[in-house]
User: Fold this.
Amino acid sequence: MRNQATQSAVTDADLFLTLTVAGQACGVPVLVVRDVLGPQVITRIPLAPPEVAGSLNLRGRIVTAVDLRRRLGLPPRPADIQPMSIVVEMAGELYSMLADAVGEVVPLRQEDSAANPPTLDAVWREVSRGVHRRDGQLLIVLDVERVLAIGGGR
Amino acid sequence: MDDLLADFLTETHEGLVALDVALLRLERSPGDKPTLSEIFRLVHTIKGTCGFLGLSRLERVAHAAENILGLYRDGVLTVTPAGVSLVLRALDRIKEIVGALETGGTEPAGDDAPLIAELDAAASGDSGTLPASSDAAEIEAQFDVAAKDATPAIEQPAAPIEIAAPKPAPSPKAAPAAEATPEEHSGGRAPPQSIRVSVDVLEDLMMLVSELVLTRNQLMQLSRARSDGAYSVPLQRLSHITSDLQDGVMKTRMQPIGNAWAKMPRLVRDLSIELGKKIDLEMRGADTELDRQVLELIKDPLTHMVRNSGDHGLEGPEDRRRAGKSETGRIMLNAYHEGGHILIEISDDGRGLNTDRIRQKVVSQGLASEAEIAGMSEAEIHRFIFRAGFSTAAAVTAVSGRGVGMDVVKTNVERIGGTIDVSSVEGRGTGFIIKIPLTLAIVSALIVEVAGERFAIPQIGVLELVRVGGGSGSRVERIKDAPVLRLRDRLLPLVSLGRVLGLDEGAAPELGENGDTGFVVVTQVGANVFGIIVDRLFDTEEIVVKPVAPILRHIGMFSGNTILGDGSVIMILDPNGIARVTGVVADGAGARAAEGKAASAVRSNEKTSLLLFRAGDETPKAVPLGLIARLDDIPVEQIENSGGTPVVQYRGQLMPLLSMGGFAPAESGRTRQTVLVFSEGERSLGIMVDAILDVVDEALSVQAGQGRPGFLGSAVVAGKVTDVIDTAWWLGQGGGDWFRPAASASVSRRLLVVEDSAFFRELVVPALAAEGYEVVAVEGPVQALRLRERGEAFDAIVSDIEMPEMDGYAFARDVRGGGTWQELPMIALTGRVDPAAVARGRAAGFTDYVGKYDREALLASLAECLAVPVAA
Assistant:
């Protein structure tokens, strides 16, 4: 993916889906996103790591939902915000990342990316692949694999 | 990878498996013409396709192998084991190259010249130099061809020539003949009625069907709500078709276990040559079908175990002869269905497990202490081979002979919801039994609810469902904090599902006398039974089991998850995991429930479940939980007086109540009286106590008492000095007839009781004495045999099995070996009454086998044993 980003033309690898978690804009590569779903019925899983919100049914496949707020050490989602599910596939398993809102698909050039600022919170630094400035706002590109490296899979 | 290559690989794989089998068949009957033709054809096909695809390396090796095979087929060359080995090596090379092709897409680099030269040499040089009969004799010697086959085997080398002769081209030029041969010999076989479908397609179909089922269920629900007649008929049809479709797709996943065994004959053959052992492999039930997912997962463990059996289990021919066994060792694979499970047995008639060595190893590796292991049965000790770490010690391989990687096997088997057990008799062989679910895909499950969440419990293992609380009669009681259920006069340990899953925080609803109603799912894990408390029960449903996501696999409580008919996701509980986490069942060696009956596996130096209570004075008192039938809480006003003894009416009978501290219930000012109830057939007796303190598991070491009646002595339990009560004495107080049967033994019989545990001696002796027997009790076989030397005479011997110095088996063998006691009835008294132990006991010379707490069985057994000489 990174190799392709060095090309000047905009390829799929340069496209990112933007999402918001507690006011912070984030991006995930479009290529890893399988589905974006509205609020879902989520079954709680006892004894699961706190980041795991539960599991849900996506057309007959079971998807494990990870709450990005809890994953990133942010305060719980206010009751009036219904989380959106961004479904990604990793190692043959489906995961859903719960975000407060989903934005749009935008092109982000790798070469426009800035390194993680040293002051970035440790939790964020762990999952960030780089920071982009967009519309006067900082957008953190999430490394999906690291976001999902929790619990028994860590 | 292009499609052509992919097809070639699939085809070649099948061909190679068939070749392995056919070559081994050829080796056994070297002149078997159809087999030869089949082999030739298979290799020829591989060679032909390679050439077409430009796989030069493969082609050259296959060609060289084909040359030899052609000569074999035409009878120019005689089949020899060395020749077959060479061809097998060529096949291995082909497999190697094919494997690399699969991963890399191109042929790997490598030099096959030496192998090809060897093949060519065998093809050209050796033909006809050896007399045919000597080859056959060699084969016969090496592979132990049965006598009746031997004669044709010697004559056979000539036969192919005769058959080959009428052919248009009897020369070694094989290629043209190859076209004709398959038709000639496959005439009897119908073309296979099957096609190849990729696993992905099947998995997709499976998923679509699951989805269809869900949609069907939703539709049915909608239709019920609307009661619209027009839709109901087609919906019914849709429903039926969906079910049939589901069944059909399920069936496509089933495969005969023989597929996983296909490589075994070759493996065993190679092993036998490599190790210089003669090994027969017997496979039964190869057509037993199981889910392909399960099949994949057990393939490797099975291979490993067969290798283990051949490598370590079986002895060499020399040792076998010396042991009086036939030179050829036997490995048996047996698969069969049993109640929703597949059972796979892997057994050998080799040397068996060396219990002493395992014992030493266990102690030296610190897996158990000397004291712990002294209290274990052989079977328990054998199970240590499944322990992680036990196998990693290289020395074990050479020393104990087994246990190589068995922990890995166990883990793999358990991962698919199976169990594995071992049984072994030294010198006679070892057997493993693997029990696995028929399919991982679909199981019948009970849907339960706790704290508003639903869970599925697989029906396998659920024994019964009990409603508790409310007006249902049964209720959950607490012994200190541990919930228990009295179920048909036995105490069942309970696990609160809500608590186990951490869903109970805050207000925990107590399922007590006045608490809410709930349900107990009585579950069996191994030999242990426990109850799971849930709030509600729903229906049972056939569920499609899906593995949980990797990030959740560390939670031991779930065996998978699934989607219910209503589309919601639900977790599937793993009773094994629950039992393990909550400790209602100890894992591995020393497995023993904290539950009454199973807790009878008691020895003085082994842990016992003890009920601690307070009665009379402040010193805690202890009694083995297993002896108590029930705990009761009786309103004081129900306690009446009969002849100076407090009694209570219970199930239409009067139950005498004893007081330990000599107090009268009315005086103590309480309104309810806690009673420990002991039951014996129709009779019951209650001991009134002040309070139940706790249930603990402790190794009981009783210090001799100061002769206080009713107490065996004191022991340190839970860090406190505790009086251990003499149940037999108390029961004796409960009424003259407590230990007196309807017809008491008229003639006084003399019994010898051999029991190392003072506790059990004290328990058994009075019981037998009360029965009218004259009882002599000794601490161990050594003391017992001393009595024999002194010329003491007895009518029967009752002996414990697990004792230090000399165990019950050795004692029985000694007694049976000669002397004045040779003919005496011997009854084994043990905590473990399992068929293997009983068989072993009988083999050692015991007349009967009785569980330790089972007084009635002991008396019945004695009566029976002693009746024999009278009748005779």
